[in-house]
Amino acid sequence: MNRAIRRVGYVVVGLLLIIVGQLTYLQVIDSSKLANDPRNSRIFLRNFDRPRGKIISADGEVLALSTRTNDEYGYQRTYPQGSLFAHTVGYQSVIIGSAGVERSYDNDLTGRTLANNPLRYPSLLRGGTQVGDVVLSLRADIQRVAKDALAGQRGSVTVIDPSTGAIIAMYTNPSFDPQPLASHNSSAVQKYYSALSADPLNPALPRAYREIYPPGSTFKVVTTSAALATGKATPESVYPPDRSYTPPQTDNAINNFGNKPCGGTLPEAFRQSCNAVFARLGVEMGEEFVPELEGFGFNSAPEIDMSPGAAVSVGPQIGSFKNDKPSFALAGIGQGPVASTPLQMALVAAGIANKGIIMKPHVGEKVTDREGKVVSRVKPSAWKKATSPDIAATLTEFMLSVVNSGTGTAARIPGIAVAGKTGTAQSPGGPPHAWF
């Protein structure tokens, strides 16, 4: 009898130990995972039953704020600028989740970041609510200029401070109004979201950093830098005035624009955007081309403080040259295996302007508390060493000539030195893309 009781006791103690062990694991080891699991209803309600911080432009305009509601949630996000910042600020939705700055800076906007330091914020110890306001590097006035410049055309504009990586403007047309997504009416949200998804123009897609396109002749900036860095060309190199170039392993010629002959020195070929010259350079560099273009950020994605992150801009791969020389010729003119986000090509230009260093792009500038004190600030940091200062200076001169007397004269501004590169790229099955 006593033996049977002891056995039952052992079983009970064992079960208790298992329960204690499981509780310890859940509360100590797995607590962080459970706390951040989107299926956790407490976490879900916490995001909506209290105000979030504001999202504010660099020039002081409120882009997102919380307003009170008389429903079970208590608060709803409001977007005063409508579609102007939809692809960067994003949205917070009870039904479909969040995107953009609303998602990437969620811990700051909800105050979770501040809650980790209660001694600095005494109101937290008294049961107060402390949220963070996120101030962006984006300027509303320049964002409006970018929108107006597109004049209703489909496309993207990205404006970057080359020395810091701060994004000053990033606008894509078509855009969308995020306000209906913030509604607490689930059927209305679903209807609006379905309409956005079904729209063939896909206005919800942030094309500036999520969609890749052939960059065309704008990529000749990268090709030229690579040719100079590898010693395959110098500013004094001279090329015959050909109408086309036929790469090895194919009979398909790569023609100049309008089938016109062009050539001359390297800067002359750059100013004229001569396909025959740059296709030839792509083949002459071969495998050496790959690490040079990767130095500009291709075959990787820039880390940007938005969610979802930037798409990978792509180029030729190491090991592919031997059996596919024509693709390297096409890469030399920004076609074939090369495809880029508008953000990535803006970073290419910024790297040239910043003496060969590409800074990590960012839209956030700082986080402030309720009293306006700075809690954290984005520190500029280098992302890629694209090229040397000397080559960057040479390319700057080349790009100045494009605007002054080449294919980019439409970009001239009286009294201001403008450097740039034009591009027109063919996209299989679609219309050509124009770049600058």
Question: Characteristics of this structure?
Answer:
436 residues; Beta-lactamase; alpha+beta; 16% strand; 2 domains; 18 strands; two-stranded antiparallel sheet
Describe this structure as you would to a colleague.
By secondary structure, this protein is α+β, with helices and mostly antiparallel strands. The chain folds into 2 domains: 44-118 and 131-137 and 171-203, Penicillin-binding protein 2a (Domain 2) (Alpha-Beta Complex), CATH 3.90.1310.10; 216-435, DD-peptidase/beta-lactamase superfamily (Beta-lactamase). The chain is built from 18 helices and 18 strands. The protein has a 6-stranded mixed sheet with strand order 3-2-1-6-14-15, with no helix packed on it. Strands 4-5 form a two-stranded antiparallel sheet. A hairpin with a 5-residue loop joins strand 14 (364-368) and strand 15 (374-377). Helix 13 packs across helix 18. The protein is globular and about 100 Å long. The N and C termini lie far apart (91 Å). Mean pLDDT is 90; it is low at 121-127.
What's the CATH first level of the largest domain? Alpha Beta
Which stretches of 5+ consecutive residues score pLDDT under 50?
Answer: 121-127
The name of the CATH superfamily of the largest domain reads DD-peptidase/beta-lactamase superfamily
How many structural domains?
2
Mean pLDDT: 90
Number of strands: 18
- Rg calc: 27 Å
Give the strand order of the largest sheet, numbering strands 1, 2, ... along the chain. 3-2-1-6-14-15
Helix content: 25-40%
| Biggest sheet descriptor | 6 strands, mixed
- Give the terminus-to-terminus CA distance: 91 Å
Shape: globular
CATH architecture of the largest domain: 3-Layer(aba) Sandwich
Structural class: alpha+beta
